[in-house]
Amino acid sequence: xxxxxxxxxxxxxxxxxxxxxxxxxxxxxxxxxxxxxxxxxxxxxxxxxxxxxxxxxxxxxxxxxxxxxxxxxxxxxxxxxxxxxxxxxxxxxxxxxxxxxxxxxxxxxxxxxxxxxxxxx
Length: 121
Hints:
The model has no long low-confidence stretch (mean pLDDT 91). The N and C termini lie far apart (49 Å). The chain contains 6 helices and no strands. The chain has 2 domains: 7-47; 55-112, lambda repressor-like DNA-binding domains (434 Repressor (Amino-terminal Domain)). The chain is mainly α. One of its GO terms (biological process) is regulation of DNA-templated transcription. GO terms for molecular function: core promoter sequence-specific DNA binding. Residues 59-112 form the HTH cro/C1-type domain. This is HTH-type transcriptional regulator/antitoxin HigA.
């Protein structure tokens, strides 16, 4: 067993995990599976990390999922003008807005408190 340093190492580890999948914990194969899973987790965290979602994009995605319009957000965010300011990234989300979006749309508060990415000009 060795550290995973390259994509080839990663691919080989993933193939071995597939052959070991379902091994009982506490057995030599189960222990090997646990160690490989840990090594894979470390490699993926370093090399395959995903960016956290942008709060505005998360709101738009949830709206699309639920068939909502901007008008549906008026009781959550505020007036049409305020919604436009938020969506155009000219105004940040307030704590109250974050709470309401979290409660009513089920968007993670952790996502909503992140700063919104400024769109490239």
